[in-house]
Design brief:
Blueprint lengths: L9 H16 L7 H23 L7 H9 L4 H29 L14 H26 L3 H17 L19 H12 L9 H7 L11 H11 L3 H10 L10 H27 L7
Helix pairs in contact: 1-2, 1-4, 2-4, 2-5, 2-6, 2-7, 4-5, 4-11, 5-6, 5-7, 5-11, 7-11
């Protein structure tokens, strides 16, 4: 499959996408609150995108073969385990590629770890779990779809759901928030922000937006410009940024093992559910007359 079905193409594509994200949002990743939130969302999207493309066509393109072999005694569980192992290897390599590209492009990576002794290993585990969860969801879609065309038609809709229901990045109605628990992006975003110590970073958007108004005149004076000069001359800017950040901390992104373990638990749980449902559906493939 890797050689003759051109699955190898997913690896250079992963590198290209990681490079584009690093170029566009990597400058402030794990440096500011806003940069970490945006960058973590983008990284989670990379992982979901990679996972989807890894396996969205895998089962449906060999559906006739699976049906024939199942009638000849093939155990669907063995078939699924073989795919799980193969896809896991792809996901591990893709996660390593993302980290490698980010480091080569001088993206700041977390220097503190919570689970292992190496921050990059913690990040790598999160990237793998997001990618693998999305991969198994795509494998489930591939088990349901009759043709590769059908699978590719379904994929954009599922991808949009993953993006919109990512949790904190988009403002959603309160009644829609429980649905965010269903997505890999929500838990990937949560884990990455926690690992980047989101709540200890400065918040710069309020300062930058206020700075745009520095030349506003009131009674022929520029009070904001005078205020900014005073802040800069007394080296108070960093203090103000941290005070602003303190008022905008998010408890769900706390730098704690419990947050990381909870996010990983959800990703693993959904991965298991996707595999179980896909296996169950394929057990009845003989009765599928489509």
């Amino acid at each position: 499959m890797f050689l003759f079905q051109n699955d190898w193409k997913v690896l250079p594509i992963s590198a290209v996408i990681a490079g584009l994200v690093a170029f566009s949002v990597g400058q402030n990743l794990f440096k500011t609150m806003e940069g970490t939130l945006m960058g973590s969302f983008a990284v989670a999207c990379i992982c979901v995108w990679n996972g989807f493309f890894n396996s969205i066509q895998v089962i449906c393109r060999e559906r006739a073969i699976v049906k024939r072999d199942h009638r000849s005694g093939l155990h669907i569980s063995s078939y699924m385990v073989a795919h799980m192992i193969y896809q896991a290897v792809l996901c591990v390599v893709q996660s390593g590629i993302i980290i490698f590209v980010f480091m080569r492009m001088n993206v700041k990576m977390p220097d503190k770890s919570l689970i292992t002794d190496w921050p990059l290993v913690d990040i790598g585990i999160t990237l793998f779990l997001i990618t693998y969860c999305a991969d198994m969801l795509a494998l489930l879609i591939s088990a349901v779809a009759r043709t590769t065309t059908s699978a590719m038609t379904i994929m954009p809709f599922i991808l949009i759901v993953q993006l919109l229901f990512s949790g904190s990045f988009f403002s959603l109605p309160e009644q829609a928030m429980p649905f965010t628990n269903l997505t890999a992006t929500k838990w990937g975003l949560t884990a990455l922000c926690a690992q980047g110590d989101y709540n200890s970073l400065p918040m710069v958007s309020v300062w930058n937006n206020a700075l745009k108004m520095k030349n506003v005149e009131i009674n022929n004076e520029k009070p904001l410009l005078d205020l900014f000069k005073y802040v800069e001359n007394n080296n108070m800017r960093d203090d103000i940024l941290m005070m602003t950040a303190k008022e905008n901390q998010i408890e769900d992104y706390a730098f704690s093992r419990e947050v990381i373990y909870n996010a990983w638990k959800w990703l693993i749980m959904w991965t298991i559910i996707y595999v179980f449902v896909a296996t169950l559906l394929l057990e009845f493939i003989d009765k599928d007359n489509r």
